[in-house]
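Hi there,

I know you've been waiting on this one. I reran it after we fixed the sequence typo, so this is the corrected version. Both the input and the resulting structure follow.
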Amino acid sequence: ILRNEDTGEIIGGVEDPDAPGFQALVTPTPTTLLADIAPDGSLAGVTLITLPSQDGGGNIVFFPVGTLLDVPFRTPPEATLAAIHAEAGLPGLEQRLETMLGAGIGEVVAVPAGQWANLVAPVAPLTVQNPVAVETTDAGGQPLSFPQGEIPLTAAQVGPYLQADAEDQADTVRLSRHEAFWTAWLAALDEAGEDAVPGEGEAGIGGAVRGLTG
């Protein structure tokens, strides 16, 4: 019946971008959420990557794991990113961040500390401008010290460097180390070429990083 119906009024779409009622069909901005997972399974860091638009660009946004968000039907009705991950895992973390941002997240990737070594290996060691000195331990429990200033960062040291959490330093200080790492890594990838980007295709960390290089 519907297929053969020929009554009614045909209303054309508004084609003038400046006219009232104009609606544009847009391509969603590709986004990838990286969740740094500590050896004990807790959340150690949250990084959001948005790939370049048609006009170029792209962003890397770092979130303190202590960021406090509203959580409906919870007592109390708010929790930090670390607590949300502990209680609801990656799906809960993604949902709360999407609500905060008012935008969807295309892909969520969990990154254990040990995986950073494989990702960075093609361009390691990196020359990083470390903003603040910090001490931590490696996967074997051996002490690691990262002094302030220009330091070489081996592939195996990247995970501990990103997840280093000193009691006398605010989480925003840790984020400054993330910024220093990403600055050094992207610069090294630009110089080394696309073959140094981990993975293949447009998915995962490799796809997100590949979109930012150059």
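Quick highlight: DSSP finds five helices and ten strands in the chain.

Best,
R. S.
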